[in-house]
Specification:
This protein is an alpha+beta fold. 35% of the residues lie in helices and 19% in strands. It contains 15 helices and 15 strands. Helix 5 packs across helix 11. The two termini are 41 Å apart.
Length: 410
């Protein structure tokens, strides 16, 4: 690799957070275009429906943008600024990157559980009739179809029409035209992407893979080679060839980092090496934030050992159902378990855990409290209640406090 620069661990973390838009707080109230730019910076915005606090994609955006109207995300989808498909997992993706995922739609059987070829073969007639119904009568939701008489309840016990719609979505024949109350509204690809023509716009899978790796490199900013493929869940990637060619093209610069060894820096961040970076942002992160969604990377880069436990039985959880990592000035210093009590307009903090090396300074206490208050105010909370926390925090915070109207401002 012949590294050109030697970086401290702090510099490395700061460069990654700069690439992700989490190094400094927003300087002004968010505008609609800021949301589009934010998704483009990350390349992918993972979708999850858990609504204990804000749903994950809204929280990921809030961590970077500060106070913004969540409806902007639905607006971006309905206006075609972004589309939905399988990338890291189900994600909102910039419209310009549709060509990068099209080959997955054309070979959906390679998507594993996300596409059931046997189901499609067994239900050809019903699926054809569903497509004709959408063609003639317009977009549909799963809720538009009644349950069968023998339908069994359960998370994976999908009714037949949902299976049809999900398979058509994975195969790219249907797309998500909009969301209503976060429920997918499915329409024909030809109506959602009327200008797309496979014969004119498709690229090879090899070229799509190269561009996804470049996106991943830009969005990570600085990375070990082994971190790169996970961003888009790529498999059997010619990684060595890509890295060598990207270095030769000047897209990647070889560096070395304390405690991490040989790494790669994306060229967009090269000017940031000229002056020391200062991390001044504090935020609550979603469990599905790109900074932590690769648990191994989070451990190696931030020494943060993190697992999401919402799918773990309650008795076996170490922390909580939907635990939010706490970012403070370039480090992940703790985790917070909370829920939003919407009827009483209260953010309830069930517990806070601090990482072993976290120093509880007055600045840390003030920064994290402001981050919590901004987060709560953005969701419409009027009060925050604190049930459990380390004594070093509880001595500074009351068990319950009211928010002022400016809490959600940048």
């Amino acid at each position: 690799m012949n590294p050109l620069h030697s970086l401290s661990l702090q510099q490395t973390r700061h460069l990654h957070l700069a690439a992700q838009g989490l190094l400094r707080p927003p300087r002004q109230r968010a505008r609609y275009q800021d949301l589009i730019d934010c998704i483009s910076r990350m390349s992918l915005l993972q979708i999850d429906t858990i609504n204990v606090v804000a749903r994950s994609p809204y929280l990921v955006l809030f961590s970077r943008l500060g106070d913004y109207p969540p409806v902007w995300l639905e607006q971006a989808l309905a206006q075609g600024e972004v589309f939905e498909y399988w990338a890291h997992e189900a994600c909102f993706i910039p419209r310009a990157d549709y060509r990068l995922l099209r080959h997955r739609m054309l070979s959906p059987e390679r998507l594993g559980w996300k596409y059931n070829a046997q189901w499609v073969a067994d239900h050809q007639q019903e699926i054809a009739e569903l497509l004709q119904q959408i063609r003639e009568n317009g977009p549909v939701r799963v809720a538009d179809f009644a349950h069968a008489a023998n339908h069994k309840p359960g998370w994976w016990a999908w009714k037949p029409h949902k299976r049809h719609l999900e398979n058509l979505f994975s195969a790219g024949e249907l797309m998500v035209a909009e969301r209503r109350n976060f429920q997918r509204v499915y329409d024909l690809r030809s109506r959602v992407m009327p200008d797309w023509q496979d014969a004119l716009h498709s690229i090879s899978e090899a070229e799509a893979t190269r561009l996804m790796l470049l996106n991943s490199a830009r969005s990570l900013g600085i990375f070990r080679g082994s971190w790169l493929a996970d961003y888009y869940r790529l498999k059997r990637v010619p990684l060595s060839t890509f890295l060598a060619e990207a270095q030769e093209a000047g897209d990647l610069i070889a560096v070395t980092a304390d405690g991490l060894g040989d790494m790669w820096l994306h060229r967009d961040l090269l000017p940031m090496l000229e002056n020391p970076l200062q991390a001044t942002h504090s935020a609550l992160l979603s469990p599905f934030d790109p900074v932590v969604w690769d648990r191994k990377r989070a451990l190696e880069l931030f020494s943060f050992d993190y697992r999401i436990e919402c799918y773990t039985p309650a008795a076996k959880r170490k922390f909580g159902y939907f635990v939010l990592p706490m970012l403070h000035r370039g480090e992940i210093k703790g985790r917070l378990d909370a829920r939003m009590l919407r009827q009483s307009k209260q953010l309830e903090i069930k517990n806070i855990w601090l990482e072993p090396q976290t120093r509880v300074t007055l600045r840390f206490v003030q920064d994290i409290r402001r981050a919590i208050e901004r987060f709560a105010a953005w969701q419409g909370a009027e009060t925050v209640s604190l049930l459990q926390a380390p004594a070093s925090l509880r001595q500074h915070w009351p068990a319950q406090w009211s928010l002022n109207r400016e809490a959600g401002s940048p």
